[in-house]
Request: fold
Amino acid sequence: MWYLAWLLGLPLAAGFAVLNAMWLEMKEDQDIIAGE
Reply:
């Protein structure tokens, strides 16, 4: 059943990475806007 862990884990990790990157971009944009 190891494949089940991969099947669930990989998309979850990929989704987390995408959300993390989006959050980081938003945070940087807010810092730039606040600095202006």
Observations:
- The chain has a mean pLDDT of 93.
- The chain has one domain: 1-36.
